[in-house]
Amino acid sequence: CNVNTVCVKTMSAPGVDMSDYEQLGCLHDLFIRQAQKTPGKVAVVDCDGSQITFEELDRMSDLLANKLHRLGLGKNKVGGILMERSLEYTVAYLGILKAGGAYLPIEVSWPKTLLDSVLDDVNPSVICTKEALSARITQSGIPFFLLEGDWLQQLRHEQKDLPIKSPVKCSLDDIAYVVYSSGTTGKPKGIQCPHRGAVFSFTWRHRSYPYSEHDREACNVFFVWEMLRPLAQGIPMYIIPDDTIYDPPKLAQFILRNKITRMLFTPSLLQALLEYKGVDLQRSLKSLRQIVYCGEVLTAVLRNKVAGFLPWIQQLNLYSISECHDVSNADLSDPQLDLSSRQFCPVGRLLTGVQVVVLDQDLNIKSVGEPGEIYVGGPGLAIGYLNRPDLNKAKFITRPAHVPPSVGDRLYRTGDWGYLLSDGSLEVCGRCDTMVKIRGYTVELEAVKTNLMDLPGILSACIQAFGPEGEDKTLVAFVTPQENVTLSNRELRLQLKKRLPFYMIPSRFIIIDSIPVVEATGKLDQKALLAVYSKLKEQAGMLEVSKVVDGHEQPITPTELKIAQIWSELLNLYVLDTDESYFDVGGHSLLAAALTSKLNELFGVNISIASIFKHPTISAQALLITNSSCMMTDKIDLQEELKKLLIHYNGIDLNVRSFWQTLYLNPNKFSKGTVLLTGATGYVGCFLLQQLLLHTQATVYCLVRESPHRSPLERIMQAREQFGLRKFVATERVIPLKGDVSLTLLGLTKDVYNSLCLDVDVVIHAAAQVNLILPFNALYNTNVLGTRNVLLFSAKSKIKPVHYISTNAVFPSGLQDVKENVDMNQFCDQLESGYGQTKWLAEQQVLAAIEKGLPVAIYRCGNVGGSRLVGGWNPADFNLYMLSGVLKTGFAPDIKWQIELTPVDFVSQVITQLVCNLHESVGKIFHLVNKNTLPCQNLYELFRHLGYSVKTIKYNEWKALILKEGEKDTQLLQLSQLLENLVKEEIYFSSDSTYSQENLTDVLKKMNISYPQVSSELFTWYIESLSNVGILPQAETDRNIVKPYGNLKGKVIVVTGASSGIGEGISRTLARAGARVVLAARRLDRLQAIVDSLRKSGAEATPVQLDVCNAEQVSTCMQEIESRVGPIDVLVNNAGVMFYQFMKKCDLARWQHMVNVNINGT
């Protein structure tokens, strides 16, 4: 169907005909017509209880209109109203409109600076006010009229001999009012609104929710918007005094005494009323029949509380914006309405005639259900901002040509984020401008609030970011508990840690009785919240530290408090738990160094950075500093931990049967389906993604944690380059997702999570925190909870097979011929490393899923080595650290070490093939641990053969050397920490377990694949390829290196496309064979880096920038090479480009690019 008909919705509540609203006249015409119908009926009941009729109000406003007209007010001129809510305010409102003017509401609560700014901006023709407030008008030349005392008699006397004037004739497009933003940030802006929008909105509401004869409407909040609505239908308007509206007992008594039936509330105002203790609201509000919510997002919690406590009240949720008036409305009164899965209430269907289109940042139309920024068109739009052409251009845009004309020529950019539903309803998700920077990360405040409000016991909450503009902010949560609920800062933090990444967890939780509101608007009072925060910040007790042992609060020791203060300073946190890991709350390697320095300086100790990793909590660090005998690590009872992780897979039998049935119908669903890959930026995950792209047709969702400075896609690209894979070309088959396996819903929004549950066909869970030093608690969230969350995902909505990447670290060392199906329970008490313990727990959850019938496979990997295809290796791998330690120092330890590794390309190949062939993998465990090891002495000899100077020394001497050299070299520093904290004794190297591979041998035979051996040939490739890219040092001499292509010394060879991949490899090989290589490509910076590397090893190489598609440049370049380097002996044309794409997609630009490079370039 046509995209415009799908994406632009104009549906409204059924049965509302708005075709004649333009014939109803302007705002004051609505009132005049009603006054003529019901002249003797009560129109306004003032704050003191006095009443006037419609006829009296009509005459009073006529007299005032004549006076204001003589004072200079006329069509499209502005008349101000500066007074409290009162009868006189209503008269002034109507008088200004009848005089043809536009009213300007001036709040009595405005500070002098804001008042002066507004009056200077508008320069009103006249101001209606009262004596006590008139002194605030200091601008000269602005006349004002006082509506108090005998003002009415005075006007009657002045006009007794004057002819009666009819109201000034205005059109719907003349200005009716100018309203100002509160001015809390930046310069306040005046919004000029015509009669059209208000007349349209009033008419729609009158016809959609008609008044009954006995209705009474109370007004104060949004007074200028609301007071005419009942008056235009002959319904009395009761004015709520300004000193009553925010006083819950007074407000409740006012509603009860006056038998009010309808009223508009901001959610914050109603929340404050409901939270107030000691008021019988069921009695006080028994007359209320309808509540309209407006001005703020309505939470499902508040709606449900009203529905349960005051079920007779109709609840209407109105989405209204000053710049475009009412947009949509939702009736939330249906007792069957289920909002249990929602945080915020829907805003319902669009008003008849109102147009909404959802666009992305490039103004492209978003499809139904696809979120973007909400743009509004139609009769409600304002004329624009007063004296702000820059803002008008940015916010009131001309309709883009590709947007259908039905939305109107102008659109208002709301700044709200949302989407349209198929029934025409609008969903508002939050603000586009509530993004703040927290510790370098971009944080959406509404997302934090949503997750906080999902926690039990919370009635309302507000998230604020405090700090100077342009600098890092401090995230603060203000929380109001539900009745009879006590909220703990510690518990709130611990609960949020399961849902949000560390940088989205507020630094401070402040428990308050109610969320403050601005008296003038009824909206959130941000200044009051800032005052509360600032007051607490000044107090000595700003930092809160909790210590819980066996469920009971314990006193904080002086040492723990001092450490906590250092943490707070480094991490900008004010709520800490002594058992939280430094690395779970924002700490990293650099901050670990800073922490180490400060602890050593404060306590006069000499602890190492490695100790911080080993003892990452405040309690552990305090014991470390005091050298307590209690520093022994508590024994982790893995069986007890496992009981806490039990997943009840209730009602999955039908889904499991359906899964197998669909697999029989579509046996290729995994090779052509949709994959969720976790750990795509890790070593194995990166090569798995490569295999999936090269050898399947699958679309791959990559779940990637956010980085402060890189997007998920950029992180994937960075990982590929780090591990030696060619630069990643963005493809529609790779969809990066910002998330975290350790968090509830994988760190995704509910909508995205639920969509993925239906879209994904198979899960490859490769994400893990691999650290052989960190303790159990530091690795628990990612390794244990992450696996649990993946399993929950795999069983939701439809069954999805899980391929889980495990490790041989789930076994203790020293075992022989470990079977794939061995009972793992016998080993849980023998595991010492936190990594092995957490992976054991994770694997036990996966095994439990297999027992329940879920399609799962487990791959236990040993040491995963470098690739046999590209020059890359995991830079954090222990084997690589050992190689570097030997080659960088020139000394090797005399140990009994059988080097075990499996090339990463083989690991990823096997797993990918088994992902595509579920019948061979489901329910099975595969040991990817190499049986064919290499003695380290053979490796040392190979080093010497390849030109390295390597001497063998005793292990303790070598270890001491590494510790010393580690002070100068980062890679050797990492090795020294592993030797100190992991290896400890020389026996570590000779205690590796061996493993049975029956399942693996069987599938390899069927795949016709051989398990690669750890051989001298393999290590020759590793050493040469890794030294060429700088991962390992170059050999001192290459006299023993075989020249596979003969003696090319002196030959000039030009290689095109030499900046990466095959071209780079050819260039390096030819250079090592003695040729004078000229590397040609478009990326000169990359060529220079390669040439610098080659020259360090004594090779001759020259970089030349060249585009093979440019014939003139090629000719000139070749002449230049011959003049600078010499006659060209050989030309290797490697430049080329290839895009994998179906022809039916007809990407002509890519096709032409391939023609230019591959054909014309050649």
From TrEMBL:
PROSITE patterns assigned to the protein according to its UniProt record, in alphabetical order: AMP_BINDING, CARRIER, PHOSPHOPANTETHEINE
Q: Which residues form the Carrier domain?
A: 554-629
* Record keywords, A-Z: Phosphopantetheine, Phosphoprotein
**Gene3D superfamilies documented for this protein:** 3.30.300.30, ACP-like, N-terminal domain of ligase-like, NAD(P)-binding Rossmann-like Domain
Q: Does the keyword Phosphoprotein apply?
A: yes
**Which InterPro entries does the protein's record reference?**
ACP-like_sf, AMP-bd_C_sf, AMP-binding_CS, AMP-dep_synth/lig_dom, ANL_N_sf, FAR_NAD-bd, NAD(P)-bd_dom_sf, PP-bd_ACP
Q: Which Pfam families match?
A: adh_short, AMP-binding, NAD_binding_4, PP-binding
Keyword Metal-binding belongs to the record: no
Under the heading PANTHER family, the entry gives: BETA-ALANINE-ACTIVATING ENZYME, CARRIER DOMAIN-CONTAINING PROTEIN
What name has this protein been given in UniProt? Answer: Carrier domain-containing protein
